[in-house]
TrEMBL record:
It comes from the Bacteria. Keywords: Carbohydrate metabolism, Isomerase, NAD. Pathway: Carbohydrate metabolism; galactose metabolism. The gene is galE. This is UDP-glucose 4-epimerase. Its cofactor is NAD(+).
């Protein structure tokens, strides 16, 4: 299938592009490189340096390339920044996404796959987290993703848009061959920061909160490999043939790991000691978030290949070892 990957030069999008090719699909990349990396995408692939909110240009690309399905990975994703700069988040994550969806309707493209997040649930009532839990985000980032989920439902009713929305838990790891991986600026995610502490690129890793009501007092998260996430998206394509189809899936391994367990996994995989500082809780961090992904397993036949935190960290370490400074494609 001919697929437009919006945000295809970003962390999850670039991994999905390679999984699409492995599955026999034909990706076209749209990315304005605000956060993405040109080097994360093979140079021979069709690449448009265009803003997803540019309705006319996107419509032209959809028509010229005869796109059949759009995948959207191009959201801003810093929870803390979304609290201090909400307009930036509503502008890109909601307003520009609406323009993208309008361009799709203009060009009669009716299939859409959306990167949503477990942050749409806020602090969950129950664990593990199933799709039917109430959605009550506690920050603008989660709210913008929930807003788009609701827009998709409306467009599905009104115009027959068929979509799948995936609520990711903690996307982590890198491609197994070490060619592409996680390179955020600034980096805020736990695994790359712990690796930086292991190799001495930063002095230490601060554990944000050691007094949570969890087995070792640190937060529990569900780290899920980017290639596993990507494969679930592709498995959903078959579900979008029916006009107006609506699908929601929570994607995680279902196994929670604490911050201390992540640090131990990095020490084991790298063979290096990680200097740790116990720090205050980070505002807005729920104590525990982990998925029940039975629905994705049953309906998409989704199987997690990277089923332990060590396996995920091994791939992040392979990427770090191959490219310690990341892509280095910014001035
Ligand atoms: N953490 C530390 N020290 C650090 C960085 C993180 O202790 O230096 C802890 C956090 O407090 C949290 C865990 O490590 O308990 C994971 O933190 P991340 O920042 O890596 O990830 P989050 O769980 O905060 O956020 C992720 C995604 C968001 C998404 C969110 C949903 O990155 O995009 O899950 O809750 F919104």
């Amino acid at each position: 299938m001919k697929v437009l990957v919006v945000g295809g030069a970003g962390y999850i999008g670039s991994h999905c592009v390679r999984q699409l090719i492995a599955a026999g699909h034909d990706p076209v990349i749209l990315d304005n490189l605000a956060y993405g990396h040109r080097k994360a995408v093979a140079p021979e692939l069709p690449f448009y340096d265009v803003n997803l909110g540019d309705r006319e240009k996107v419509k032209a690309i959809l028509e010229d390339e005869a796109i059949e399905l759009v995948m959207h990975f191009a959201a801003f994703c810093y929870v803390g920044e979304s609290v201090t700069e909400p307009v930036k988040y509503y502008e890109n994550n909601v307003v520009a996404t609406l323009r993208l969806l309008e361009a799709m309707m203009d060009a009669n493209v009716t299939k859409f796959v959306f990167s949503s997040t477990c942050a749409t649930f806020g602090v969950p009532d129950r664990l593990p987290m199933t799709e039917d839990l109430p959605q009550a985000p506690i920050n603008p980032y989660g709210q913008t993703k929930l807003d788009v989920e609701n827009i998709l439902k409306s467009l599905s009713h009104a115009h027959g848009l068929s979509f799948a929305a995936f609520r990711y838990f903690n996307a982590a790891g890198a491609s197994e061959d070490g060619l592409i991986g996680e390179d955020h600026d600034p980096e805020t995610h736990l695994i790359p920061l712990v690796i930086d502490a292991a190799v001495g690129k930063r002095e230490n890793i601060k554990i944000f909160g050691t007094d949570y009501d969890t087995p070792d007092g640190t937060c529990l998260r569900d780290y899920v490999h980017v290639d596993d996430l990507s494969r679930a998206h592709i498995a959903a394509f078959d579900k979008l043939d029916q006009p107006g189809a609506q699908h929601f899936y929570n994607l995680g391994t279902g196994t929670p790991n604490s911050v201390r367990e992540v640090i131990q996994a990095v020490e084991k995989v790298t063979g290096k000691k990680v200097p740790v500082v116990e720090a205050e809780r980070r505002p807005g961090d729920p104590p525990a978030l982990y998925a029940d992904s039975k629905k994705a397993k049953a309906e998409l036949g989704w199987e997690v290949k990277f089923d332990t935190i060590e396996k995920i960290v091994e791939t992040a370490w392979a990427w770090h070892s191959a490219k310690p400074e990341g892509y280095q494609d910014r001035g």
